[in-house]
Amino acid sequence: MKSLIQSYREAVTICSPSLQNVFLLALRLWVAWVFIAAGLIKFNNWGSTLFLFEYEYQVPVIPWQVAAYAGTAAEVILPIFLAIGLLSRPMALALFIFNIIAVISYPVIWESRFFDHQLWGLMMLVVVLYGPGRWSADHVFNKYS
Q1: What is the reported pTM?
Q2: Cβ contact 142:85 at 8 Å
Q3: What is the C-alpha separation between 111 and 117, in angstroms, rounded?
Q4: Per residue in 65-79, pLDDT tens?
Q5: How much of the chain, in percent, has pLDDT values that exceed 70?
Q6: d(CA 103, CA 110)
């Protein structure tokens, strides 16, 4: 008769890979949804977006016009790659850096939304470190190449 601990270990060994893949997919989809939603809001309210980049956001180094176009494009395009799991690690790293720039550029985030940005950053780092999981285009391409 198996001990309870041995049965637990066997169950974890069997279920762990599947749960890890579900978890990584959930991380990718959650982060992608958050950034795509923000990017579409900027895209659909372009006048407001330009105003915010000119007067509110304090983007370092690049002109505000370039930051508006590049930031909106990054918020819409990079998460699509992340969601389907294509070039997942570089896309998650790019979004991680983008997230840091957003926090630095918009001080209001520190007052109300800093925890959210920390959570998203951690989620992206998990994908960078562990990869996208089996349910991704990266896995399919690696399997057949």
Answers
A1: 0.84
A2: no
A3: 12
A4: 999 999 999 999 999
A5: 90
A6: 7
